[in-house]
C-alpha cells in the first residue's frame, strides 16, 4: 500500500488515486500460488510461482515470478551444468550421425541458448533454443538463464541484485577485511626454465606488440636445451 502525505489537496488527491489504482490492479489477480521445485539441486537454480487473472479483461502485471534456490556448491564430480545438457544429446543422431557434444559457453549474442560443439570437429549446433533454468549465462558470472533470458544475480544470490564482492572476496564488503601477507618466495628453477624466463623477460616489449612470438620463443628455448 502506497501512503502519501502532502500539504496540497491536489497532490494528496493525485497520490490517493495512484494508490487506489495499484490496489485495483492487484485485486484483479488471484493470490500467488506455491513455489515450484527448484530447477537444480545444487549450484544455484530457479523456482517460480504463478497467479491467475480473475478479470475477463487483460490484467496488468506479471503472472509469474521467480526466485533463486539451491544456492550451494555442487560436488566436483557433478560436472558443468551446461555440459550435462549437451552430453544428453550424445545418443541422439544429428544429420544421421552420433556425436559427442561439448558446451559452447560465453556466447555474447545469445548466452541462454544451448550451443554445443561436436568433439574433434568445427561443427557447432544449437541443440535447444533455451538452456535449463539455473544455467549460468557466463562461466565467470552468477547471472543465470531463466526462461531463455539472462537474469542478473548478485553475490547475495538474489535476482536483480547489483551486490558484488569486494577485492577481499566479501559480498557487499567495503574492502576493509583484506590481509596483506609479506614474505619471500624461493623456487629452484631448472636451467631450461631459467633460460626461458630470461628470454620472456628480455622480449617482453615484443611480446606485448606481437603475442604470437611467445610460442616461438618457448619452442626455440626448449629446442636449445
UniProtKB/TrEMBL annotation:
GO biological process, one term: extracellular matrix organization
Alphabetical UniProt keywords: Disulfide bond, Secreted
Keyword Membrane: no
Annotated GO CC locations: extracellular matrix; extracellular region
Keyword flag Transmembrane helix: no
Cited PROSITE patterns: TSP1 (PS50092)
One Pfam family from the record: TSP_1
Residue pairs linked by disulfide bridges in the UniProt entry: 38-69, 42-74, 53-59
Source domain of life: Eukaryota
SUPFAM superfamilies: TSP-1 type 1 repeat
Residues of the signal peptide: none
Subcellular location: Secreted
Domain ADAMTS/ADAMTS-like cysteine-rich: 106-178
Stored Gene3D superfamilies: 2.60.120.830, Thrombospondin type-1 (TSP1) repeat
Protein name from the UniProt record: ADAMTS/ADAMTS-like cysteine-rich domain-containing protein
Organism expressing this protein natively: Cyanoderma ruficeps
Organism classification: Eukaryota, Metazoa, Chordata, Craniata, Vertebrata
Amino acid at each position: 500500500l502506497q501512503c502519501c502525505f502532502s500539504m496540497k489537496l491536489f497532490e494528496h488527491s493525485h497520490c490517493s488515486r495512484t494508490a487506489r489504482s495499484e490496489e485495483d490492479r492487484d485485486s484483479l489477480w488471484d493470490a500467488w500460488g506455491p513455489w515450484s521445485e527448484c530447477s537444480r539441486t545444487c549450484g544455484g537454480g530457479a523456482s517460480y510461482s504463478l497467479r491467475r487473472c480473475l478479470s475477463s479483461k487483460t490484467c496488468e502485471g506479471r503472472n509469474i515470478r521467480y526466485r533463486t534456490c539451491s544456492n550451494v556448491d555442487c560436488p566436483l564430480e557433478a560436472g558443468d551444468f551446461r555440459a550435462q545438457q549437451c552430453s544428453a544429446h550424445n545418443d541422439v543422431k544429428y544429420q544421421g550421425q552420433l556425436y559427442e557434444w561439448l558446451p559452447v559457453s560465453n556466447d555474447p549474442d545469445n548466452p541462454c541458448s544451448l550451443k554445443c560443439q561436436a568433439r574433434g570437429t568445427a561443427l557447432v549446433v544449437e541443440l535447444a533454443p533455451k538452456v535449463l533454468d539455473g544455467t549460468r549465462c557466463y562461466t565467470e558470472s552468477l547471472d543465470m538463464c531463466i526462461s531463455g533470458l539472462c537474469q542478473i544475480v548478485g553475490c547475495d544470490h538474489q535476482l536483480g541484485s547489483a551486490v558484488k564482492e569486494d577485492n577481499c572476496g566479501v559480498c557487499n564488503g567495503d574492502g576493509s577485511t583484506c590481509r596483506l601477507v609479506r614474505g619471500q618466495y624461493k623456487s629452484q628453477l631448472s636451467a631450461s626454465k631459467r633460460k626461458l624466463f630470461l628470454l620472456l623477460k628480455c622480449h617482453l616489449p615484443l611480446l606485448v606488440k606481437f603475442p604470437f612470438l611467445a610460442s616461438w620463443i618457448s619452442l626455440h628455448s626448449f629446442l636449445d636445451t
